[in-house]
Amino acid sequence: MTGARLNCCPFCREIINPADPGLGDTNCPGCGRRLWFIADRSATWFFTNAADLDRIQMVLDEQRKMLELGFDYLDIVEIMMELEERLPEP
């Protein structure tokens, strides 16, 4: 993914206070550019475009489905690593 940064703006590197958990968008307080984010209790990832966020959301949805089917997190990590090796970067 291009332009993803942990807890700061990928453009100006301004530290941004973590947003509420979830997905969304905001403007950077430093440079004013629009950013998309995904946040959990421990970190917030900021992205420069919504397409990256959409790809993350799809992965999270698939992980949720796998957990409902009885896969554990190790199974999910192994499956995701296998997919990364087989699929080209979008």
Describe the structure in your own words.
- The model has no long low-confidence stretch (mean pLDDT 78).
- The chain has a four-stranded antiparallel sheet, with helices on one face.
- The chain is built from two helices and four strands, in the order ββββαα.
- A hairpin with a 6-residue loop joins strand 2 and strand 3.
- It has one domain.
- It is 37% helix and 20% strand.
- By secondary structure, the protein is α+β, with helices and mostly antiparallel strands.
Write the layout of secondary structure elements.
Layout: E1 5-6, E2 22-27, E3 34-39, E4 44-47, H1 50-68, H2 73-86
Antiparallel strand pairs: 1-4, 2-3, 3-4
Low-confidence stretches: none
Tell me about the biggest sheet? 4 strands, antiparallel
The strand line-up of the biggest sheet is: 1-4-3-2
Number of strands: 4
Helical content, roughly? 25-40%
N to C succession of SSEs:
EEEEHH
The computed structural class is alpha+beta
- Spatial extent as radius of gyration: 15 Å
Q: What number of structural domains do the residues give?
A: 1
Number of helices: 2
Mean pLDDT: 78
**Could you say which overall geometry the principal axes of the C-alpha atoms support?**
elongated
Content of β-strand: 15-25%
How far apart the termini lie comes to 9 Å
